[in-house]
Design goal:
Blueprint (H helix, E strand, L loop, with lengths): L16 H14 L3 H11 L4 H10 L1 H4 L8 H20 L3 E4 L10 E4 L1 H17 L7 H4 L1 H25 L13 H7 L6 E2 L3 E2 H29 L4 H19 L8 H5 L4 H14 L2 H8 L6 H30 L5 E2 L2 E2 L2 E7 L5 E7 L10 H9 L1
Antiparallel strand pairs: 1-2, 3-4, 5-6, 7-8
Helix pairs in contact: 1-9, 2-3, 5-8, 6-10, 8-13, 10-11, 10-13, 10-14, 11-14, 11-15, 15-16
EC number: 1.3.1.21
Membrane topology: Multi-pass membrane protein
Subcellular location: Membrane
Length: about 375
């Protein structure tokens, strides 16, 4: 388990290596069933997590369906879809943008083909169903197996990233130093794992197929609601509108994502692979999963009010992010609203010895709250 006690932990932790490694191992093993327990709460207990957890405690063997592999058909279908998504990410053209400097001073290129990727993916999901080759609610009908397939894929990606980081890292001076192999699996080794010069595993995983999956999952559960109940509720439409507003904005302004914590600071380990590939698409779509089984309808005025509140949250997020990006792009030579931009110049030195600078905005929405972009997303969510 232990590699070398002298190796520095990348977060500066001082806890003993063995207990911390055991904690990471338990986390990796125990978080996996969570998504199945949540789905069980929706399908078997009318949305009650308390009843789902109680059932798990009373009869864990009956509840731990997560420990089995997905059915052969769903596993194959999931693998084919991921392969198709990887091809789209590879072949679709897009302008090339530079990311933030890495800790070792590299400035990596990224192909901005997200919007075309999203459109092609959604059409590729809808077209076979429209032609009668499959069903619009195929994903929703087989959701438990899809969750299992996503869990398997996350573990495979974790192992791939571990082996690649140990044997053939893309930028070895950006690797994070962990103190055990289990820490390597949990946190990850490589900050920017790539195949070739531009095929970025983090962007594909979190910034392409999982973001697109949100829209496709919602469509599938809306179709399931129609199949079961014969209609689609205003609440379902409201949820889908707000989610797709965020998705389309993400792909339309994906340069913003290149400055995010996930891209700049998080290595690719189980934490990233499972969080982005399982937790994110399953938990973020809980509303449509629940509404498909429980078609709760609110008065139209209430639905419009909720929709308006969500749009207001989106506007806060959009304006705050745009203000920050504009000031950084112009190195501070930019007005924020009707005032000159005020900011703090934060200097740092990368491991290649080059001194760099980051601007911390103190104007616009940023002078009222530390992270107005997060507040906007919280309201929208």
């Amino acid at each position: 388990m232990q590699k070398d006690a002298s190796l520095a932990d990348d977060l500066g932790r001082k806890e003993p290596i063995v207990p911390r490694s055991i904690n990471y191992l338990l986390l990796m093993l125990l978080v996996t069933p969570l998504t199945s327990i949540w789905w069980s709460a929706i399908t078997d207990h009318n949305g009650s997590l308390q009843l789902s957890v109680t059932r798990f405690l009373v009869d864990p063997r009956a509840s731990l369906t997560w420990c089995f592999l997905p059915s052969h058909d769903i596993g194959v279908a999931f693998a084919k879809w991921i392969f198709f998504e990887a091809i789209l990410y590879t072949v679709l053209p897009g302008r090339v943008c530079a990311g933030q400097p890495t800790p070792s001073g590299h400035t990596l290129p990224y192909t901005m083909n997200g919007l075309s990727f999203f459109i092609c993916s959604v059409i590729s999901f809808l077209l076979p169903a429209a032609l009668g080759w499959t069903e619009f609610f195929f994903i929703a009908k087989n959701w438990r197996d899809v969750i299992l397939a996503a869990n398997v894929f996350a573990w495979l990606l974790t192992c791939l990233a571990f082996v690649k980081g140990r044997i053939a890292p893309s930028y070895k001076y950006d690797n994070r130093g962990n103190d055990s192999y289990i820490s390597d699996l949990w946190r990850g080794i490589e900050l920017h794992p790539r195949f070739g010069a531009a095929w970025d595993l983090k962007i594909f995983h979190n910034g392409r197929w999982t973001m697109t999956a949100l829209a496709i999952i919602d469509i599938s559960f809306a179709a399931l609601q129609w199949e079961i109940h014969g209609y689609i509720t205003y609440t379902m439409i409201c949820v889908m509108l707000l989610r797709n507003l965020l998705i389309v904005n993400f792909f339309g302004n994906e340069e913003w994502y290149l400055c995010s914590t996930e891209v700049c600071d998080e290595p690719f380990g189980f934490y990233f692979a499972w969080g982005s590939g399982v937790f994110f698409p399953t938990i973020y779509t809980l509303q449509t999963q629940y509404l498909a089984m429980n078609p709760i309808e609110l008065p139209l005025t209430h639905t419009i009010l909720i929709l308006s509140l969500g749009i207001a949250g989106f506007m806060v997020y959009y304006i705050a992010t745009e203000q920050k990006k504009a000031v950084n792009d112009t190195k501070g030579v930019h007005d924020v609203g009707d005032e000159m931009a005020q900011f703090i110049r934060a200097s740092y030195t990368t491991t290649d010895g080059v001194e760099r600078e980051s601007l911390l905005l103190c104007s616009g929405l940023w002078k009222y709250i530390r992270h107005p972009n997060y507040l906007g997303l919280l309201i929208l969510t």
